[in-house]
Amino acid sequence: MKGSMKEDTLADYHPIALADILWGIFSGVVLREEVKKVINGSEGFVNGDFDMAFDIFIRGLQAAQN
């Protein structure tokens, strides 16, 4: 993400839309982990899920730029 910001990869996108999407990814991962706790009674590995979610998001942005 830092590299994308330095390269102006995100400059073409509306900042409020980006904030909404990033917040949606974050809250979606957190909500899903809470549901897993209730259903399975076990702790999830949120950090790995965040890494994967944001990696997918960044790859999508990079693909759109190409």
Automatic annotation (TrEMBL):
Q: What is this protein called?
A: Tetracyclin repressor-like C-terminal domain-containing protein
What organism does this protein naturally occur in?
Desulfosarcina widdelii
